[in-house]
Give the backbone structure.
Amino acid sequence: VEGTRTGRCIIKPSRFNLVVGLSGGRKFLLNTLSGAADLVPAETAARLSAGGAGPADESDAFLVARRYLLKDDVDEATFVEKFYPASLQDTRRKMPLHCIAILSFDCNLRCAYCWQQHRSTQAAGRTMTREQADAMIASVPTLMRCLTVDGNQPPLMHLFGGEPLLAENREVVAHILERCATLGWPVQITTNGKTLPEYRELIERHGVAEVQVTVDGPDEIHDRRRIGSRFAELMDSIDRLVEGETVMVKMRVNVDSDNAAFLPELANAVIDRQWYTSRKFYAYVAPLRDASMADFGLIRNRAKLLGTLLLMKECHPQMEIFDFLGWDGYTAVRNLENQGVFPYPKTHVCEANLNQVVFVPDGHLHLCAEEAHDPDGIVGRYWPDLTVDPAAFSRWYDLSPLDLPSCRDCSILPLCGGGCQLLTRQPEFRRHYCDAVRKSLETGLAWLGPAADEGDVP
Ligand code: SF4
Ligand code: SF4
């Protein structure tokens, strides 16, 4: 410990320290800003929990080096104020423009849990026309010039909905795929997979980079939740796409307490088809969420569900085939487990702060796909002409995690970033969300603790 005031350095604790208790009395000590993560004896954690301020002694050298304790002249608050905007710009500069094309809000399934059905009425029935698709593509160079993007990367075109691959969308889908192939723009499609047999040839011919399909469980579990979809048919469609090896196939499983118990069986079905042998296949489970934020049930149960799944993975090793995404808080633990470090601080609230632009079929631009039905989220038009409302645009694009009063003083802000801009309208939901983030982080660390003790974490 260097530097002196009265012979010894004066130190103070960082406000980004977090202590998580493990079984056996050990503690996980984290600093979410510096990225330090250490297993420490209970006394060390107690020293920090007690405040840690005052003259440093030799035993504090480790805590100072790892930024749990700061020298008195370190102004952490000022550092954060400067670091956040600079880091956000840096993140943007490394990313391409991400164009989300909502071809229509309609869908050919009626999933039991879908919140979109409840709010799609006003926009339903409109489909992006060929002329609008051309206007969308024509707007891209201007948008790339106006936003902070990596201009060396081609823009990413993402077909989304509703369901983008409806039978009646075929002409506009073919047109967009053809134009993107000519321009050298990669295309992603998020689909329920119902019409994959009819679209597969088109997808492969135009070199679509990635198709994400949702499968919710084996047999009748899937059919009961994804009303209108047939598990056996869907698995055969995925099979043919994986076999073709031209497209990255992502399989997403929306999980809640209703289908969690069936994941080992679903993993067996994937293993039977040997999709894991393809480098172009990836499967993940994600917690079912209600983006309408009307019901707190799912968010309140999110961390408990994670604990159940981690336990199941111990008992059913075939579940290793699934990555776990979407548990905010736990994502950082996955980083620590796989790469030996916590993720770099997240200085954006969500994708709406990055280079994501959403094109909806009535010609409007939004920055968030989840509220693309909502006139409050309009930031401009791409059709008939490109116009942007600077104030509306900036409200989404420039919102910093530091602008969120409930997040500013949160010790896990650098891991969470505030989660979702829509939470600013839902303080009650945010309370449950924060609880889920913290508990998901703690649940993940509690599982990681023994592995870290045994040296299995790099
Ligand atoms: S959303 Fe909650 S957990 Fe996330 S940074 Fe804000 S206060 Fe913290
Ligand atoms: S505001 Fe929420 S729903 Fe919209 S892009 Fe951000 S995280 Fe997603």
